[in-house]
Design brief:
heterodimer, A: alpha+beta, Ubiquitin-like (UB roll), 5-stranded mixed beta sheet, globular, B: 136 residues, alpha+beta, Aldehyde Oxidoreductase, domain 3, 40% strand, elongated, MOCS2A (chain A)
Amino acid sequence: MELKLFGVAKDIIGSNKLSITAEDFATVGELKQWLSQQYPKLQQLRSVAVAVNSEYAEDNQSLQNAYEIALIPPVSGG
Amino acid sequence: MLIRIVDNINLAEAYQYLQSPTSGAVNLFVGTVRNHSHGKEVVKLVFEAYEVMALKEMHKIAVAAQEKWILDKIVMIHAVGEKLPGEAVVITGASSVHRKAAFEACEFLIDELKKTVPIWKHEFFKDNSVWVNAHP
């Protein structure tokens, strides 16, 4: 499945999407941990959230019924 | 409520939506591009949104405002793409019977938008660029 990337996260990872296998990660927290190991620069950000099906997700949330996942670096609208 | 992500902000459209014979107050906040930041000249801003989620989050904020104040109408519009100094990038607005509710709701709408709505601001200077707020 596709992980959508935005803003500074898109620059760090070098693409606007990343192909992942949701089954490889039991929870949002596991996905975040894997990403921060693969892309250590993500650790320097003020925050990194994950949205599942376009809603903010907690670390303990399952990815089982996810049809859309996005990485949300610190927002700066307005 | 009028909630949109657009290429170009239309102030007249926002005002037209908000005003009505039952309202005694229309309050609009317009956020614009400032030509300086941290002592440097800003050349342009480029806004990016996770549109489907941004609209959902804006809707939640508008609903929260309706629960806090008695409002006639609410507007939240954010622009995406390249914006030059002076250009409008965001509008929040509310109309109500008396001015106090519209003033307070309008400020609440923009304050909350800045906290949770997945929109990102890329600030361009003459020699470099930064994603605003990305790093501590």
